[in-house]
Amino acid sequence: MTETSVSDLRVVVLIPVFNDWRCITDLLTALEEQEGLPAHIEVLIVDDGSTHEATPANTPRLSRLTSVSVLRLATNVGHQRAIAAGLVHLEAKGGFDSVLVMDADGEDSPSDCLTLMEASVSDPGSIAVAQRTRRSEGMRFRILYFLYQWCFRMLTGQKIDFGNFSVVPGTCLHRLVYMPQLWNHYPAAVMQSRIDVQRVPTQRGQRFSGESRMNFISLVNHGLAGVAAFADTVYARLLAFSVFVAAVLGAGVITGVIFRLQSESPLPGWLALGATAAILLLFQIIGALVMVSFLTLSMRAQPVLPPLYVAPRYVQSITDLMGQTLESNDP
Questions:
Q1: What are the extents of the domains in the chain?
Q2: pTM for this prediction
Q3: What pLDDT sits at residue 2?
């Protein structure tokens, strides 16, 4: 069996973008000039409903980048869903060996693309993901991101230590686009897909220009989407924790009752107050467990459409970089 090298790969670079077209120009130039990459690379830019600057202002001279297409979405659906729409489009299109998913701003360093591709070639049955060894954001963001990782691990029992920057072999893409979690959180969908994940240590790069749009609200929403992808696991862990707390409270209340029955002296005020609070909390926990259980069972009974069927509805048109319309869903 002939061993595949990076230079032989047919790679499509998937780049979601929202109004950040200046960075797109810089990224295309960096990919064009990066040594060691395949001789021919296709680029698919997913325009996530941008409100201005429909294409890069200055198109670089391209030779390695044999095709640069823009998949325009009808509205802004968010970074993660833009990635899902791009993957669904590529899965239907075919004609490639791997998909390189990366952001346009430069924080996914073009110099690490070769490292990810080499890792993917060494294990073609796995998804090679960039594991950050050092981040470039400010202290506030790093603290919030640490808290997000900690909460994620407590709720799901799994460690999330990678983002969107990754290489997906074409053989794995069909399974991935059927994952409902892909529509809201790409890394969580990768973890849930049961596809092997190969972590590649990288350092986060510097933005080409502008400032990151990721703020506290965005980070919270992103974190909640990741946790929601493991809803069944989170429910089971919270259920076990709630039962444990309820058992402890129940044991405390029973102990207080036994103490009162066997003792002639009245209960201390603090103990009576504590027992009352424990009883009220116990009933609240039981009520919450019943309600959440019914909601969870109801959600599981509802069919969930995978991105393969949902994403194409948001595609407005597909054009190449020179503006030629390849496909349009406009009425």
A1: 6-230+308-328, 232-301
A2: 0.80
A3: 47
